[in-house]
């Protein structure tokens, strides 16, 4: 009986364990099902969210297209309606009053105004920190031209480069009609060149004088040494002859040699007289010294005459200084004028239509390539004036590089966000191409002597100021400073793009000063023969 009971208890315990396992398995299954359902719900929510986002984007695009179509249609309708319907009320008839009021309401909706960035077309909003001053509904050339005299956020950009272009035109006219080398004091140039040559000749002449003085001192010193030597020898001879004389006297006592004595007595006196003559010996009166000094004087005179002839030839070259070409300066000024003209046109007409915005934007960037190339013509041409092959090579290299950048700038793709890096590298490469000839010129002037006295050093300070204006203005423009720190405070004046425009004007002015200095420096120093 007890065995049966134990067996039944064991069976019950096993059944309970199996039941618990089944319950645990069911719980795990339920958990897995719940987790799967939650994942499905999450995926459904995510898909629904993406669907809503896509619908919202489509809705906004459709709304934007509809607004643009409405704006285009209303502008066309307004242009076709008679202008009398948008005039003032005559007050004579109710129908005319009603139509006039309706015309006025339509006119107010399409009336151009200076407004907030939210009201402006998106393609003209280039700076997120500029809130106001946008031209809205300037949808005709007449309205755009009128905006030239309105105050908006492009006023400084437009007028700065319009005035700059006018200044460049005046410089071109001044050089073309008034600017000649006659304006330079030719006599002053001759005097300055003579002064320069005297400054170079005087040290050489002084060296000859010093050599002559040193030579005389050397001769005198040598003469003193000779005289001292002769005095010593004279004393020695006197002593020797005194000794001989005493010996002869002793010999006389023993031998009859009176005749020999008389002859020997005359010999020391003759030698003494000769040595006494050497005491007044002056080397300066001797033929060998006179011949040497004559040769040195002739060489000195011949060298001085050659230097005077060189100075005279340089003075004669001043008579042809007016033939020094000015076309490199004209190319620089023309490139500056086109750059400023393209920029002013772009900033004035960018609100007219989006296709015009893209077209003038390409011209704006193309003008930059022209300015970079034109600025290098004068320093290269005048710097390598005596080496035509190098001048032609570098000018051609810059012209080809700028031409490539100009053509690429006219394409649409280069102005998209995708090719922003490529565009930056393209203009950076053009700047490097422009700097290479100037670097070569500086090394050539510093380490090689070809007889050409031309130097770019007088104009270096202006080229450095030019580079500072370009790089400093570009840094301000790229950093959106100062408007990024005070959004909305520099909407009309003082924004980074306006600072960039003003810096370009100053850079052109400094370049003009530099290239005119290059021209005058080359006029002073024509090529050596």
TrEMBL record:
Chief localization: membrane
Protein residues bound to Zn(2+): 347, 497, 501
GO molecular function, one term: signaling receptor activity
InterPro entries per UniProt: AdipoR/HlyIII-related
Keyword field contains 4Fe-4S: no
One GO cellular component, as annotated: membrane
Keyword Zinc-finger in record: no
Localization of this protein: Membrane
Biased composition (Polar residues): 22-41
Membrane topology: Multi-pass membrane protein
Record key words, sorted: Membrane, Metal-binding, Transmembrane, Transmembrane helix, Zinc
Location of region: Disordered: 1-45, 82-103
Segments of skewed composition (Basic and acidic residues): 11-21
Biased composition (Basic residues): 1-10
Transmembrane segments: 156-177, 327-351, 363-385, 391-410, 422-440, 460-478, 499-519
Pfam families (UniProt xref): HlyIII (PF03006)
Similarity annotation: Belongs to the ADIPOR family.
Protein name: Uncharacterized protein
Organism: Pseudocohnilembus persalinus
